[in-house]
Amino acid sequence: MINKTVNNVTEALEGIHDGMTFMLGGFGLSGIPENCIQELVKRNVKDVTCISNNAGVDDFGLGLLLKKKQIKKMISSYVGENAEFERQMLSGELEVDLIPQGTLAERCRAAQNGIPAFYTPAGYGTEVAEGKEVRDFDGKPHIMEEAFKADFAFVKAWKGDEAGNLIFKGTARNFNPLMCGAAKVTVVEVEQLVKPGELDPNFIHIPGIFVQRIFQGEKYEKRIEQRTTQS
Amino acid sequence: MINKTVNNVTEALEGIHDGMTFMLGGFGLSGIPENCIQELVKRNVKDVTCISNNAGVDDFGLGLLLKKKQIKKMISSYVGENAEFERQMLSGELEVDLIPQGTLAERCRAAQNGIPAFYTPAGYGTEVAEGKEVRDFDGKPHIMEEAFKADFAFVKAWKGDEAGNLIFKGTARNFNPLMCGAAKVTVVEVEQLVKPGELDPNFIHIPGIFVQRIFQGEKYEKRIEQRTTQS
Amino acid sequence: MLDKNGIAKRIAQEVQDGFYVNLGIGIPTLVANYVRDDIELEFQSENGILGMGPFPREEDVDADLINAGKQTITALPSASFFDSALSFGMIRGQHVDLTILGAMEVAQNGNIANWKIPGKMVKGMGGAMDLVGSAKNIIVAMMHTNKAGDSKLLKTCSLPLTGVECVTKIVTNLAVLDIVDKKFRLLERAPGVSVEAIQQATEGDLIVEGDIPEMKL
Amino acid sequence: MLDKNGIAKRIAQEVQDGFYVNLGIGIPTLVANYVRDDIELEFQSENGILGMGPFPREEDVDADLINAGKQTITALPSASFFDSALSFGMIRGQHVDLTILGAMEVAQNGNIANWKIPGKMVKGMGGAMDLVGSAKNIIVAMMHTNKAGDSKLLKTCSLPLTGVECVTKIVTNLAVLDIVDKKFRLLERAPGVSVEAIQQATEGDLIVEGDIPEMKL
């Protein structure tokens, strides 16, 4: 077995520096790599580009990096939950590349799987298609989208073993599996780090080959954005 | 819940006719839709195109359809296990399109996911690239490959529930999940048909939305091609 | 004239047996409350669940179980979870049968704008461009006019587009309309709303043929 | 001169700690038997397993657990199963560190042919084109000459290609070679084999620089 464990978040983030491009898993605040984000804030790494579906909220998730102005550019699909984000974007302090959510997912998956580019109908005829190749397939226009390139991917899984095999839980799965192996270095934090053999090989969501470093997250707040219950 | 069950293989294959294009799951003889294949032989449907990684052996799997000359064209990556196949191909009775295995998988997945085309390095500079668009990404040549188009997909899963949710076992998974939803109609045969709720929603390999018909296979031979054991 | 729940109630009649349905944020979410009991359907939420159930009881709230609006939800016994690539594969591959979403503007050729007001509001498109780029069957749920009283059913959209020539039906507080020959066609009036009132609230070309029935709710 | 097991034994020395390795059918499969115990590695089989173990005991044979050569196998505790798309994603995405495969012909520019003899033998390329199209590190395991005694290390391939300019190293029954400046470079001789014998068996241009050591097995 090839052992992927590192001792803690400090070791896990070795090699990060200013100006890099990061991928971060999660949808809203669900399934975000909380410990990695805290460490990014602590290290005060600057001028980074973040590929992440959302930008957190003002005081949690990627919002923490935004507040400290560590982010130069965001590549996201939806950023409506974050007032500071909107302010920085409208003032021009922050570069923003908004792209369709399915395209975001597929561009991660393409990077993971060695597919340099693919065609999708999403965004045809909109701002998103500007400057991109348009081609008809079966009489329907599609635009060409390219795989992402990133330096580090920060991923949160539910359980992982020492070989880097991962399992995600519920809708906290989202973009996390697609970012594994989509960057030069994939760092995974898990709620439960287990021994090889404890995960059923038939039900592993992401095999360890896509993971370079794995560690047990110290604590998880798992904040809820919209607590809705039955009346 | 949307119920996808049909009573038997006869109902499952309703609507098939001569000249159609079929996708069939399986690698070698592992994970092939045995009951569907038997029924295709019985109905003697002719002039069909089969998309399947392999072509079975002389007396099992797709070899049964070959023997009865039901197949007009095979789209496969490896057909070395079948003498009758080689005979029909070299004599020109059978059209054959041999394509790289990873490209075969990805073209199924593209059809399933509404991606009309993608780029891959596999086959560049070989016969496979003839007539295809070549484009450089990061200085490396890639060829454009298009999604498959098929009428029926025949898939074998290990367990499935009435909603069409599927679980595969071991390496019998192979192409099966990728063919679900990649054809106009997806027919799935399972070793165990269970009630909704019996499969853990976190460990379903293919959600029921990709499946039109599901039934419990009557019997499974599960023949082994190369029985190798420790000395 | 309908309220938001009324719009949702009317749209619920469009859901057919065996449909997989994606509901956008806002009014569309309310549609789930009004679908007839004898119809078998499943709700897909693009963040990664098929077989979405109602909101949880207080004690069942789970941070790892939310919908695309980031609301806590439950999963039905037939549910499954998946990653965002497969989720949008369901959408892009036209496996989802019906998409219901909100809009800021709809044009009479079926164009829709719902993600950006330049220089003012930029929340992003989320999954909307994927949905309207692929879905066969797109119903827009919205108020007929905006807060300033201006029509949202226009000759051409003024805001940045989300998708082109894609909307099939529109249900507003005033009317049900579809799109034919690049014009709006009036199909039903909301209770107590006259054809004239609808015409007045519609900036785009409106086809009115014969008697326009009142919605049955 | 080496036999098949000798070739496998020599190639096993190329496997480094932490490598994910894909083994082709034939000689490459034998490599697994000779890797040093203190090296951590995992074998990938492109039909959908990572963490492939040895052949099973008779009572553990499972039709649902085979390798790319259709042989029954076992899975290690660290194993995982996956579909063919993700499996070739590992290959295409260069996550697999080392590919070892057989060949009918290798050319001095790194071209390889191993899937078709026109009009005669057409088994198909299986996963070979994906492997050689993407792998960073490709070792060919083969006999130096074919059954007719003709060299398999050529100026240019005569058979239909599997991939272009991709082979990094070749281990045969006679020698270890790599490819430099579009020529074969002799690195090691098999025990008891002379440089002259290797030169004679090599149709392509052969670089011989200084003393060529004998393999240590």
Describe the protein:
The complex is a heterotetramer, with two copies of chain A (231 residues) and two copies of chain C (217 residues). In chain A, a hairpin with a 2-residue loop joins strand 6 and strand 7. Chain A contains six helices and eleven strands. By secondary structure, chain A is of the alpha/beta class. Chain A has one domain: Glutaconate Coenzyme A-transferase (3-Layer(aba) Sandwich), CATH 3.40.1080.10. In chain A, strands 1, 2, 3, 4, 8, 9, 10 and 11 form an eight-stranded mixed sheet that branches. Chain A has a three-stranded antiparallel sheet with strand order 5-7-6. Chain C is of the alpha/beta class and 217 residues long. Chain C has one domain: Glutaconate Coenzyme A-transferase (3-Layer(aba) Sandwich), CATH 3.40.1080.10. Helices cover 17% and strands 27% of the residues of chain C. Chain C is built from five helices and 15 strands. The longest helix of chain C has 9 residues. Chain C is globular, with a radius of gyration of 17 Å. At the A-C interface, helix 4, helix 5 and helix 6 of A face helix 3, strand 9 and helix 4 of C.
Largest interface: A-C, 58 and 54 residues
Instruction: Indicate the overall shape of chain A.
Output: globular
CATH topology of chain C: Glutaconate Coenzyme A-transferase
- The helix/strand class of chain A is alpha/beta
Number of helices of chain C: 5
Q: Enumerate the spans of chain C where pLDDT stays under 50 for 5 or more consecutive residues.
A: none
Secondary structure: number of strands of chain A: 11
User: How does CATH name the architecture of chain C?
Assistant: 3-Layer(aba) Sandwich
Rg of chain A: 18 Å
Overall number of strands of chain C: 15
Order of helices and strands of chain A: HEHEHEHEHEEEEEHEE
Strand line-up in the sheet with most strands of chain C: 4-3-2-1-5-10-12-13-14-15
Report the β-strand fraction of chain A as a percent range. 25-35%
GO molecular function, one term (chains C, D): CoA-transferase activity
Family (chains C, D): Belongs to the 3-oxoacid CoA-transferase subunit B family.
Protein name (chains C, D): 3-oxoacid CoA-transferase, B subunit
Keywords (chains C, D): Transferase
